[in-house]
Amino acid sequence: MAVADAFDEHCDYLFKVVLIGESGVGKSNLISRFPKDEFRLDFKPSRGVEFAYRNIKVRDKLIKAQIWDTAGQERFRAITSSYYRGALGAMLVYDITKRATFVNVGKWLHELREFGGEDMVVVLVRNKSDLDQSRQVEREKGKGFAETEGLCFMETSALQNLNVDEAFWK
């Protein structure tokens, strides 16, 4: 597996993935961890949509993962809906230490299903698992919601780099 930052490098396949969820759940750190293996402790909310790329060499083919980090703030919700189009996958992220971020997962999923493709693979991501001692959302709640809605389920910690790559590969 090879990682590159080049935007215009030739690729054989392009896969668009969007990260969605409330502000502060760790989407930006997941998106930084996956392509660049970086983590930032200083929180700066995303504005609109931000992008990252990771090129992966599989056999003799170059696959470009195009990752879109959508802002979680309500004032940016209107501009994010158009960005779902063309996405092959979505990561619906919530923070285990903030119950409200899980409560709103249903709203995000509704929006995703309204504007995204029918064949899109959706992973419900239980983020910040390194803070389990401060959790407000039990693992079983997230897993049960994912099963009911037909979503994949993954626990991650961008801080500890736990299951970040695996969540993107789902």
Automatic annotation (TrEMBL):
- Provide this UniProt record's keywords sorted from A to Z: GTP-binding, Lipoprotein, Membrane, Nucleotide-binding, Prenylation
Provide a Gene Ontology MF annotation, just one: GTP binding
Query: Where in the cell does this protein reside?
Result: Endomembrane system
Specify the domain of life of the species encoding this protein. Answer: Eukaryota
Q: Which Gene3D superfamilies match?
A: P-loop containing nucleotide triphosphate hydrolases (3.40.50.300)
One cellular component term (GO) for this entry is: endomembrane system
The membrane topology noted for this protein in its Swiss-Prot or TrEMBL record is: Lipid-anchor
Give the matching PROSITE patterns.
Answer: RAB, RAS
What the entry lists under Pfam families is as follows: Ras
Tell me the PANTHER family matching this sequence. Answer: DRAB11-RELATED
What family classification does the UniProt entry report for this protein? Belongs to the small GTPase superfamily. Rab family.
Report the protein name in the record.
Answer: Ras-related protein RABA6a
